[in-house]
């Protein structure tokens, strides 16, 4: 009987020391915004507005089909704390340079969200820096 009680106490202590369940606190917000993001991704395909991404040393050059204003998010799959966001403004040109010297080496997902010609676009691509 005492062995059984020790087992139960051990299991209770072990359960309370486990970390809390991690879940996405923004799950419902993301679900509501999914349709908007999907429409932006489809708009890239419809207009054939896929940007050209070229990595050259300490800089990432992004070339759009038209002048663009928006943001570029660099998302690190292994750690949310390393994510960075940059403002993109090509002015009258079609190209923007993003300095990435401060970013850690490895795999990143670039999320480009921009507006061009009264249309909104969203494009994602995985790259290695």
Concise structural overview:
The protein has 129 residues and is α+β, with helices and mostly antiparallel strands. Helices cover 29% and strands 37% of the residues.
Structural features, described:
This protein is 29% helix and 37% strand. The protein has 129 residues and is an alpha+beta fold. The protein has a domain at 50-129: Immunoglobulin-like. The longest helix has 21 residues, at 27-47. The chain is elongated and about 80 Å long. The mean pLDDT is 87.
Task: Describe how the helices and strands are arranged.
Elements: H1 2-17, H2 27-47, E1 52-56, E2 59-63, E3 69-75, E4 84-89, E5 95-99, E6 107-116, E7 119-128
**Quaternary state of the chains:** single chain
Radius of gyration: 22 Å
Q: Report the biggest beta sheet as strand number plus sense, adding barrel if it closes.
A: 4 strands, antiparallel
Return the string of H and E elements: HHEEEEEEE
Tally of contiguous helical segments: 2
